[in-house]
Amino acid sequence: MSVYDFSARTIRGEERSMSDYRGKVLLIVNTASECGFTPQYKGLQELYEKYRDAGLEILGFPCNQFGGQEPGDEAAIAGFCETNFGVTFPLFAKVDVNGDDAHPLFKYLTKQAPGILGTRSIKWNFTKFLVDREGNVVTRFASTDKPEDLERDIQKYLG
């Protein structure tokens, strides 16, 4: 099993298979528009622009499970990200990342890359999962890890 076995609805409402990203290095992030970490959208977009042609895809998954910090609908979220941060990387429909209703992709990610002390739950917005070109989850980064601090790890997997 790999991330390629999952699919998700895009922010525009289309179903997208993760296998569409086969052969790419993926950075999968749970996001929110009203969070103290929201400015990380800027750093994520900069990484995307810098490494997209080398094979990086950043996949943003809005989530409202942490402090109600993603209250808008998909249209509002897309507009906010485009207007305020110039986001062009793929965004997906709002999902739960913890609990019984967690999106299956996030259940898989947290199983493959548990947090500190082996915890599976995601602690906050902007938790990031790095996936290699074969679809293997290789590491998990905390909300506090800034996008620019991930560059060395990303470069390693871009080869």
From TrEMBL:
Active site as annotated: C35
Keywords: Oxidoreductase, Peroxidase
GO MF, one example: peroxidase activity
InterPro entries recorded: Glutathione_peroxidase, GPX_AS, GPX_CS, Thioredoxin-like_sf, Thioredoxin_domain
Superkingdom of source: Bacteria
PANTHER family: GLUTATHIONE PEROXIDASE
Entry's family note: Belongs to the glutathione peroxidase family.
Protein's recorded name: Glutathione peroxidase
